[in-house]
Amino acid sequence: MKIVIIGSVAAGTSVAAKARRNNEECEITIYEKDSDISYSGCGLPYYIGDSEIERDVLTPRTDKWFEKRFNMDLKIGHEVLSINKDNKTLVVKNLNTGEEFEDNYDKLVIATGASPIKPPIAGIDGKNVFFLRNVKSADNIIEYIASNSPKKAVIIGAGYIGLELLENLENLGIEVTVVEREDRAMSKMDKDMAVYLEDYLTKKGVNLILGEEVTKINEKSVETATGKKIDADFAVVCTGVRPNSKLASGIGVEVYPNGAVKVNHKLETNIDDVYAVGDVAMAWSIINGEPMYVPLGSTANKMGRICGDVITGGHLRFKGILGTGIFKVFDMAVASTGMTEEQALERGYDVEVIHNIKPNQTAYFETSREMVIKAVADRKSGKLLGVQILGENGVDKRMDVFVALMSTGATVDEFFHLDLAYAPPFSTTKDPVMYTGMILENAIYGKNKILSVKELMENRECYTVIDVRASKQYDAAHIPGAINIPLGDLRSEALKLDKNKKYVVHCNKGVTGNAAQNVMLNLGFDCYNLSGGYKNYSVQTKN
């Protein structure tokens, strides 16, 4: 059996490695038109911003190493021009010599990745405009900075790569402006979580321009559709990627409207003996099975390994993804998985939404930092639909636990029973994951109803707000129209309240608010607890 793989970054090399581990007899050939293979695409922003990170760290494996290690042919600088599915041949061009030749396959794997989306911006082909996709593109940015000593830059797009690059350019002493056409940073997050990130970036002195579209890039400036002119020596376009599926669609492989190749759980396309893996392929949601395009190296590696196993008769099958992502900007970690609240509502779910603000460890440690957790659950099934977390420490740990719970179909009432690792340097006695489950369980299965800041603001006249914090906190800042009844006085003072009204209680972050809610409920009041307390309210209403 002869396996031909087109593409040799995360997915393609994973196919080859797993196929060889399973089978010593098969013949394996990889064609790669680039000069680098199996590189760390996720590390490119750090390569640019940290002189201590050498190029060899991003490209630890050469073609010769792979050929020797896995007994295969890996031909870099070779582009596959066309595929004949009927006689299982392909035409390949040696980009170094210009020679074209024909090869054949028994099994063909398309791992052609994705390319940066190129928006219709005047001047986008200028010498001071860059896209960050492979090691060579990072080299170009490094070389430009070294040769021109730029003082100012504009990053177009406030997604993962754009914000990671922001930090690394700032580390080089370059003043950066980030322009995002959506109304929020990280459009993959709900607005009520993106505001935490935006607030953090603003405090860091970042010039973040939202809801603006770049229309022109000049030699020393960038212009927007509303007439803003931003000084910039160079620009980096980080507006997402598009699957490189032209080869695949050219032979009748089914693709989605965004160009991603349609595959099944064996990574097979609709064409016999043709597979697709990595950024060129569409995944699907573990939650509801709908198509999901989240091009990440982790998914590409997973797809590649599964495909290599399938081709050589193995049992592995691709089960889908949650779309989990995490990145760091300065000291802030931002993570998300599954659906946002907006996406869940669009799909018709009856959702329960909570905001949980908790420290990553016992508060008396200097490294203790608060994290904000937003969880979206399905009231009907009791399962999580999505989670978003922001914080400086411990974010990845909690997100990984949530992902494991969602992947196994756990319901929110099971979270509290997790036997998680606890000691004061690592967590709190009830971990933030457990607390999230407790809040959701009380809201879905119990009587402790949660009200979001958005719901309160949209229906403010319907609720009497009771601030149960100490008077000193209330006097410093409070929700307009709220009355102050500290928790210690609530039992007696509640007797003076009208039971025909709806009440919302809150403390600073939610825990004391929950205690106050229980008092009110036990006294016969219709009472909600404000999600995330006053702290969440103050962030949501800052602008």
Please tally the helical runs, counting DSSP H or I stretches of 4 or more residues. Answer: 17
Global outline: globular
Q: How many domains would you count in the coordinates? A: 4
Alpha carbon gap, first and last residue: 63 Å
Largest sheet: 5 strands, parallel
CATH fold descriptor of the largest domain:
FAD/NAD(P)-binding domain
CATH superfamily membership of the largest domain, which one? FAD/NAD(P)-binding domain
* Secondary-structure class: alpha/beta
CATH level 1 name of the largest domain: Alpha Beta
Give a description of the structure.
- It comes from Ilyobacter polytropus (strain ATCC 51220 / DSM 2926 / LMG 16218 / CuHBu1).
- InterPro entries: FAD-bd_OxRdtase, FAD/NAD-bd_sf, FAD/NAD-binding_dom, FAD/NAD-linked_Rdtase_dimer_sf, Pyr_nucl-diS_OxRdtase_dimer, Rhodanese-like_dom, Rhodanese-like_dom_sf, Thiosulphate_STrfase_CS.
- This protein is of the alpha/beta class and 543 residues long.
- The protein has four domains: 2-41 and 50-113 and 242-311, FAD/NAD(P)-binding domain, CATH 3.50.50; 129-239, FAD/NAD(P)-binding domain (3-Layer(bba) Sandwich), CATH 3.50.50; 331-446, FAD/NAD(P)-binding domain (3-Layer(bba) Sandwich); 450-540, Rhodanese-like domain (Oxidized Rhodanese, domain 1, 3-Layer(aba) Sandwich).
- It has a five-stranded parallel sheet with strand order 3-2-1-7-18. The chain has a five-stranded parallel sheet with strand order 9-16-10-11-12, with helices on one face. A five-stranded antiparallel sheet has the order 21-22-25-24-23, with helices on both faces.
- β27, α14 (471-476) and β28 form a beta-alpha-beta unit.
- The termini are far apart.
